[in-house]
Amino acid sequence: MPLWLCNQLMSAFQKKDRRQICLLNDCWYYYRAKPDRTKDTIEF
């Protein structure tokens, strides 16, 4: 996980900003899964 994302998540947890936590979590899983998806198929 990139350091900037870790810092954003820690900040969101400290502020108890549930919306930002969910958004960052979704971003992490989207970008983590993206290379796997592009290996098998090409999306246009």
Major β-sheet, in short? Answer: none
Derived from helix and strand composition plus strand pairing, the structural class reads mainly alpha
Q: Which percent range fits the helix content?
A: over 70%
Shape: flat
Number of domains: 1
Note the gap between the termini: 28 Å
> What share of the residues does DSSP label as strand, in percent?
under 5%
Protein name: Cortex morphogenetic protein CmpA
Structure description:
- The chain has one domain (3-39).
- Helix 1 (3-15) runs antiparallel to helix 2.
- It has 44 residues and is mostly helical.
- The protein has 2 helices and no strands.
Quick structural overview:
By secondary structure, the chain is an all-alpha fold. Helix content is 82%, strand content 0%.
How are the elements arranged and paired?
Elements: H1 3-15, H2 18-40
Helix pairs in contact: 1-2
Organism: Candidatus Cohnella colombiensis
Protein name: Cortex morphogenetic protein CmpA
InterPro entries: CmpA
List keywords for this structure.
mainly alpha; 44 residues; 2 helices
